[in-house]
């Protein structure tokens, strides 16, 4: 039996985890129900997002960070929609940083790969999820980003100057990291400059690797984003 050849064919499989952050209140959406629960094509935003991760070949273990006040509502919605995808439900924190930190604390395997994804980006694709795990395994990090389609100007002291848009990237999620790197970064004190996971990891001294995102992977932030997301989901389902 060619044991050497066989062993060399098996790539070092690491456990994969996906942290879905849903601990926000959605103040910019101005709706009584936080935006992660709003129905898109008949199902809450959050269920669309979790399903994509569940269906990705990387098959991550899913951790959902949700404010404790909404755990009962989530259980009721899962029952109503017959939603049975396995996931660990934990409490969200005061900010996105604190929600991520709570979730990271649940993962003990320091060799794991951890993707962090906004619950309110339901249009992520399985291809991007898998590529992010692959790239993070190789480089330590994989942060999804797209080039700006608009021209860019920077305003300083009331004067605007044109910037080279080819050097500007708009950052999305998933943001995927080797666990040891991410855990060390999240031991830092919270700062208001931490707008995403890449900024936390970068501050800890690690290099960030960008991967190609998708302009369709929108973050549902304002009321008009619901109609845009529904149109994109309908388009996607017609393509299948
Ligand atoms: N304390 C928080 C705040 C935000 N998030 C999550 O981080 C993601 C991106 O945040 P954002 O779009 O800003 O969501 P909200 O904070 O809910 O929205 P807003 O800023 O308009 O209040 C969302 O999935 C949100 O639920 C979180 O897990 N915990
Ligand atoms: C993490 C993020 O989605 C990357 O674009 C974004 O930074 C979240 O920002 P927000 O201020 O919480 O909307």
From TrEMBL:
Pathway: Isoprenoid biosynthesis; isopentenyl diphosphate biosynthesis via DXP pathway; isopentenyl diphosphate from 1-deoxy-D-xylulose 5-phosphate: step 2/6
UniProt keyword GTP-binding present: no
InterPro entries: IspD, IspD/TarI, IspD/TarI_cytidylyltransf_bact, Nucleotide-diphossugar_trans
Keyword Kinase applies: no
Molecular function per GO: 2-C-methyl-D-erythritol 4-phosphate cytidylyltransferase activity
Family stated for the protein in its record: Belongs to the IspD/TarI cytidylyltransferase family. IspD subfamily.
Name of the protein described by the UniProt record: 2-C-methyl-D-erythritol 4-phosphate cytidylyltransferase
Source organism per UniProt: Mucilaginibacter aquariorum
């Amino acid at each position: 039996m060619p044991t050497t050849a066989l062993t060399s064919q098996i790539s070092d499989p690491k456990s994969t985890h996906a942290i879905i952050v849903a601990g926000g209140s959605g103040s910019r959406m101005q709706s009584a129900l936080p935006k992660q629960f709003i129905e898109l094509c008949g199902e809450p935003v959050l269920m669309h997002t979790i399903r994509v991760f569940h269906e990705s070949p990387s098959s991550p273990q899913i951790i959902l960070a949700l404010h404790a006040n909404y755990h009962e509502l989530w259980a009721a919605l899962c029952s109503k929609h017959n939603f049975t995808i396995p996931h660990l439900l934990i409490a969200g924190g005061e900010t996105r940083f604190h929600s991520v930190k709570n979730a990271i604390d649940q993962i003990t395997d320091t060799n794991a790969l951890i993707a962090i994804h906004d619950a309110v980006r339901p249009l992520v694709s399985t291809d991007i999820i898998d590529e992010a795990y692959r790239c993070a395994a190789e480089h330590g990090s994989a942060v999804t980003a797209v080039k700006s389609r608009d021209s860019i100007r920077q305003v300083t002291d009331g004067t605007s100057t044109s910037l080279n848009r080819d050097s500007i990237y708009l950052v999305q999620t998933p943001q995927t990291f080797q666990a040891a790197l991410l855990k060390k970064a999240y031991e830092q004190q919270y700062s208001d400059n931490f707008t995403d996971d890449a900024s936390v990891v970068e501050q800890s001294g690690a290099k960030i690797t960008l991967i190609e995102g998708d302009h369709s992977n929108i973050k549902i932030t304002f009321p008009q984003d619901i109609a845009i997301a529904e149109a994109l989901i309908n388009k996607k389902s017609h393509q299948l």
